[in-house]
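Weekly puzzle thread! Below is a chain. First person to post its structure in token form gets bragging rights.
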Amino acid sequence: AIDACLRAMTIRRSTGSPVAVSADHHSLAVYEWYSGNRAVADMPVGDAIEVLDGDAAQHDPNRLCQLGHGFAMQAFLAVQSSRADI
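Winning reply:
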């Protein structure tokens, strides 16, 4: 699943679909977390947020929705790691 997600992300980057790229980063974070790679899962969830965090997200409901998913996943991972400071 992780390899497939990375391949999909490459394709979606080439098509210029930031919402889809963010969703792939989010999925990658979930797959890493399920695989027990807790520290690794933080990186793609940060990338999922970074792809969409900016002025454009404020004017596009799809971007804003996906950005919210990224923040929710970041909070979930923080709680699971007992890091409420994120």
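Puzzle host: Confirmed. Bonus trivia for everyone else. The chain has a mean pLDDT of 90.
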